[in-house]
Write a structure and sequence with these properties.
Layout: E1 5-11, H1 14-29, E2 35-40, H2 46-55, E3 58-61, H3 70-76, E4 98-102, E5 106-108, E6 122-125, E7 133-140, H4 144-157, H5 164-171, H6 175-178, E8 190-191, H7 199-205, E9 211-213, E10 224-226, E11 231-233, H8 242-263
Parallel strand pairs: 1-2, 1-4, 2-3, 8-9
Antiparallel strand pairs: 4-7, 5-9, 6-7, 10-11
Helix pairs in contact: 1-2, 1-8
The protein binds uridine-5'-diphosphate and manganese (II) ion.
Manganese (II) ion binds near residues 103, 105, 136, 213 and 215.
Length: about 260
């Protein structure tokens, strides 16, 4: 049934909550029939928690789970990714039969409830290494058994990239070859930066994009936005071309219209 299925996201601080709120609002705008759940850590402020409760059906506090693997994380130049191990807690939401996890830096452009027709473990290819899936959008079945196996696997093997994506790819290691039904089309997790490595494909297929993923160090909330002109402003440190800017403008439209009023 649809009431025991949920979209799940994660935010470990008030900054990532801004992304989670835009994601949640985008799912609401496209009238999802599923529940909206968010995992947070103790750092999230009480003011933010009450705003989260106005967009999400369920706000669950979990402990931060760090991969404690500073060597591999340093290789990635992304020390903040250790907290993404916290993602594994999503398998503990066993009051749902099936869930779709979405990073807080994703945005849906249309209703994507058909994702619940997929089975664990379904995900889209990563644009950097397509035999790996990107762990920003995936279909899973909450299960304490799986959760414990994941923790055990993490303790024994660590993660080849220091984050959840390396761990999950090693754990669900037959994803690349076993079942094409578990390969989500790239339009369910389109990384806005990957577009520019294959522009003709984006021009051909990009209009069907269903989920945008603002992967990478610069997130939508790091840009400046002019509330009067409704334009995303670029400075010397941020670069982006037309499509990237139009996805950013979509994010900022939702943020300024629906989220900022809640935060004031
Ligand atoms: N995340 C978080 N706090 C952090 C870093 C990450 O809550 O400090 C969560 C958030 O849901 C985020 C996800 O973990 O979308 C994955 O991290 P991120 O999106 O920054 O990684 P990327 O997709 O850029 O590789
Ligand atoms: Mn992400």
């Amino acid at each position: 049934s649809v009431t025991d299925q949920a979209f799940v996201t994660l935010a470990t601080d008030d900054v990532y909550c801004q992304g989670a709120l835009v994601l949640g609002q985008s799912l609401r705008n496209h009238t999802t029939s599923r529940k909206l759940a968010i995992l947070i850590t103790p750092e999230v402020s009480s003011g933010m928690r009450s705003v989260l409760r106005s967009v999400f059906d369920e706000v669950t506090e979990v402990d931060a789970l760090d991969s404690a693997d500073s060597v591999r994380l340093a290789l990635l130049q992304r020390p903040e990714l250790g907290v993404t191990f916290t993602k594994l807690h999503c398998w503990t939401l066993t009051h749902y039969s099936k869930c779709v996890f979405m990073d807080a830096d994703t945005l849906v452009l249309c209703n994507v409830d058909e994702l619940f027709d997929r089975e664990e473990f379904s995900a889209a290819p990563d644009s950097g290494w397509p035999d790996c899936f990107n762990s920003g959008v995936f279909v899973f079945r909450p299960s304490l058994k799986t959760y414990n196996l994941l923790l055990q696997f993490a303790a024994e093997h660590g993660s080849f990239d220091g984050g959840d994506q390396g761990l999950l790819n090693s754990f669900f290691s037959n994803w690349a070859t076993a079942d094409i039904g578990k390969h989500l089309p790239f339009i369910y997790n389109l990384s806005s930066s990957a577009v520019y490595t294959y522009i003709p494909a984006f021009n051909h297929f990009g209009r069907d994009t269903k989920v945008v993923h603002f992967l990478g160090a610069t997130k939508p909330w790091n840009y400046k936005y002019n509330l009067q002109t409704k334009r995303v402003m670029q400075d010397g440190t941020t670069s982006g071309s037309f499509h990237q800017l139009s996805f950013l403008a979509l994010w900022w439209n939702i943020y300024s219209a629906s989220i900022l009023p809640l935060l004031e």
